[in-house]
TrEMBL record:
It comes from the Eukaryota. It comes from Equus caballus (Horse). The gene is CDH15. Keywords: Calcium, Cell adhesion, Cell membrane, Glycoprotein, Membrane, Metal-binding, Repeat, Signal, Transmembrane, Transmembrane helix. It is a single-pass type I membrane protein. Gene3D superfamilies: Cadherins (2.60.40.60), TCF3-CBD (Catenin binding domain) (4.10.900.10). This is Cadherin 15.
Length: 748
């Protein structure tokens, strides 16, 4: 770097109030906090020192921060000092200043989490101790570093949710904190789930930490507790991390009916004895043991017309305990065949059954035969609110269509609990489980997984295009699927072929080479349901040139993009339309351009130079884009005050009669350059005759700023008595356009 350039940089830095810093040398910036900002006609103000930023955890100490100077005394005759927290207040000794040079240094490592800024006072004294300047503020801002790892508020978060909950159900919320600056990415936290030990049944909101269910299939009988490993990371997910555990417990619902362990139980009883237990009936229920959902309820349906037997539930084992409540007589009956139910009622219903479809009827009996009682029925558990029960008859029917995606539809079964109670005092109740099997109906046709793809133009290149299909119906009404080129378009079979890959996919190939570009094929898809459902669907296939690896070459990307929109024919039509519009617009533009040129040449020939008159604002210290009320433009249009004319009233000439003159006839434009002078003179005469405007040779006031100015006029136009004292030759120095005016009005 030469000496001249160094000198120029030094002068520039000094003018900006900074010291020059060369590469490899750490020198503090030099500030003149007491220097006054120059300005003409303005109130002088001291400079405001911007905050000085320094990073926390800075290890290279002492570290120069800034240098302050006073220009009232020469170097060496000013004593500098600073006061405040970090200097003579706690924490002491963090900052220091060289009393002769004014250099401020950092002497200790900073921690933004303890103190994020320091506000100091700087002083400048002469050698005698007198103040040279007023004290000035010096603010030091500690810049945050990502030196704090985020921390979860808890090591373990717990949550509970019903099994079978619909997707989107709130479970719990994880929260974490970060001690770094919350206004920076150092504290921008993002939550995620690292592991949940199985299917992705839960999700966490990356910003709020809320954990919700995302899929159906929460089954307490399969997995009762889910353990989630959570992670939080700062720097918007790319920085320091921390982990925690979320334990989610599934709450039981009565979604499993009890079942006997055997179809038949054999027991023996002694005659003429009552009040004894004769045996136990074992059942299995997958619901939570010990809960009301697990407790079985037994009923003797047949074989005991005289009420000689009773059955109760052992609350510890959930077994049915059969007992004799009335003495038995061997001679009257040596064997009793009892039909006992654990109180479930099973039935089936077709998928999509309409509202009002009968489901089942509960018929309860009250063993208190000596007292007539009225029974009534109601729902005790119906998670989808799908059923309605007739309170008097116990008839159950649907009240709307059940969604096939219901989370309470498990393995094709829907379970509800019906309650029956009598009107005795106190009333007695009993419950019955209703298990409804939803029979799958083939009401959806299969469709292509992807309606587009690419294929090599050479039949022996590539592996072909693999096509798949999906069906919303469940087996056996879904796969295997049957793919077929549409019989309505027989020419497709001459160029294309499909071969089965598996029950849900086929491979599409070319029989021979075809033209590159987009091809639309019509495929017929059919499922295996009864009766089968089928759909005809369009497939967009882009045929392209391929490399040795069987993939489309880069040059074929334009053809491949056509599969998402217009065909080649449509693109050609579109481009042709655009070109036609351009051809129609071109003659119109040429005619308009020709007329404009002829007007310009006929009016002022020779003034075709490409000149631009620009208004340059060199110094604007007021207003701005938001200052829309700085000037009242109406005052410029209709000035008041010295002119004595009220606002809104046009100025009228005093030497012209009042009234409106008849508008002059339209003037013809000059046909040759020689007629321009006459054209201009006629225009001036017409302007002088117009009573609504001042004469042409009258001074025009463009901006009225009040009267009484001590300055003289800026022009001698008002004092001019004629044109003979006007010198127009200076106009030649202003450019070609003004030179033409000088020729018209200047001396010949």
């Amino acid at each position: 770097m030469d000496a001249a350039l160094l000198l120029a940089l030094g002068l520039l830095a000094q003018s900006l109030g900074l010291s020059l810093e060369l590469p490899g040398l750490r020198k503090p910036s030099t500030l003149y906090p007491w220097r006054r900002a120059p300005g003409l006609g303005r109130v002088r103000r001291a400079w405001v020192i911007p905050p000085i930023s320094v990073s926390e955890n800075h290890k290279r100490l002492p570290y120069p921060l800034v240098q302050i100077k006073s220009d009232k005394q020469q170097l060496g005759s000013v004593i500098y000092s600073i006061q405040g927290p970090g200097v003579d207040e706690e924490p002491r000794g963090v900052f220091s200043i060289d009393k002769f040079t004014g250099k401020v240094s950092l002497n200790a490592m900073l921690d933004r989490e303890k103190t994020d800024r320091f506000r100091l006072r700087a002083f400048a004294l002469d050698l005698g101790g007198s103040a040279l300047e007023e004290p000035t503020d010096l603010e030091i801002v500690v810049v945050d570093q990502n030196d704090n790892r985020p921390v979860f508020r808890q090591e373990v978060f717990t949550g509970r949710v019903l099994e079978g909950a619909v997707p989107g159900t709130y479970v719990t919320k994880a929260e974490a904190t970060d001690a770094d600056d919350p206004e920076t990415d150092n504290a921008a936290l993002r939550y995620s789930i690292l592991e949940q030990g199985g299917p992705q049944l839960f999700s966490i909101h990356e910003h709020t930490g809320e954990i919700r269910t995302v899929q159906v299939g929460l089954d307490r009988e399969v997995v009762a507790v889910h353990n989630l490993t959570l992670q939080v990371a700062d720097m918007s997910g790319d920085g320091l991390t921390a982990t925690a555990l979320a334990i989610i417990t599934l709450e039981d619902v009565n979604d499993n009916a009890p079942a006997f362990t055997r179809d038949e139980f054999f027991m023996e009883a002694t005659e003429a004895i009552s009040g004894v237990d004769v045996g136990r009936l074992q059942v299995e229920d997958r619901d939570l043991p010990g809960s009301p959902n697990w407790a079985a309820r037994f009923t003797i349906l047949e074989g005991d017309p005289d009420g000689q037997f009773a059955i109760r539930t052992d609350p510890r084992t959930n077994e049915g305990v059969l007992s004799v409540v009335k003495p038995l007589d061997y001679e009257s009956c040596e064997q009793y065949d009892l039909k006992v139910a654990e109180n479930p009622l099973r039935t089936s219903l077709a998928e999509g059954a309409a509202a009002g479809t009968p489901v089942a009827t509960f018929a309860a009996q009250d063993p208190d035969t000596q007292q007539l009682q009225r029974l009534s029925y109601s729902k005790d558990y119906d998670p989808e609110d799908w059923l309605q029960v007739d309170g008097a008859t116990g008839q159950v029917q649907t009240q709307r269509v059940l969604s096939p995606a219901s989370p309470f539809l498990k393995d094709g079964w829907y379970r509800a609990i019906i309650l029956v109670h009598d009107n005795a005092s106190p009333p007695c109740t009993a419950t019955g489980t209703l298990s409804i099997e939803i029979l799958e109906v083939n009401d959806h046709a299969p469709e292509l997984s992807s309606p587009s793809g690419s294929l090599c133009s050479e039949p022996d290149q590539g592996a072909g295009l693999v096509l798949g299909a999906v069906d919303e119906d469940l087996p056996p009404h879904g796969a295997p699927f049957h793919f077929q080129l549409s019989p309505r378009v027989p020419e497709l079979a001459r160029n294309w072929s499909v071969s089965q890959v598996n029950v849900s996919h086929v491979r599409l190939r070319l029989r021979h080479q075809v033209q590159e570009g987009l091809h639309r094929l019509s495929l017929l898809l059919r499922d295996s349901g009864q009766p089968p459902q089928q759909r005809e669907q369009l497939l967009n296939v882009t045929v392209c040139r391929c490399g040795q690896d069987g993939t489309c070459l880069p040059g074929a990307s334009a053809l491949r993009s056509g599969g998402a929109g217009l065909s080649l024919g449509a693109l050609v039509i579109l481009l042709a339309s655009v070109i036609l519009l351009l051809l129609l617009a071109l003659p119109v533009a040429l005619v308009a351009r020709s007329r404009q040129r002829s007007w310009d040449k006929g009016l002022l020939p020779g003034l075709q130079d490409d000149l631009r008159d620009n208004i340059l604002n060199y110094d604007e210290q007021g207003g701005g884009e938001e200052d829309q009320d700085a000037y009242d433009i109406s005052q410029l249009r209709h000035p008041t005050g010295a002119l004595g004319t009220p606002l809104g009233r046009p100025l009228l000439r005093r030497d012209a009669p009042f009234g409106q003159a008849r508008p002059p006839p339209p003037r013809l434009l000059p046909t040759s350059p020689a007629d321009i002078a006459d054209f201009i003179n006629d225009g001036l005469e017409a302007a002088d005759s117009d009573p609504s405007v001042p004469p042409y040779d009258t001074a025009l006031i463009y901006d009225y700023e009040g009267g009484g100015s001590v300055a003289g006029t800026l022009s001698s136009i008002l004092s001019s008595l004629g044109d003979e004292d006007q010198d127009y030759t200076c106009l030649r120095d202003w450019g070609p356009r003004f030179a033409r005016l000088a020729d018209l009005y200047g001396p010949p």
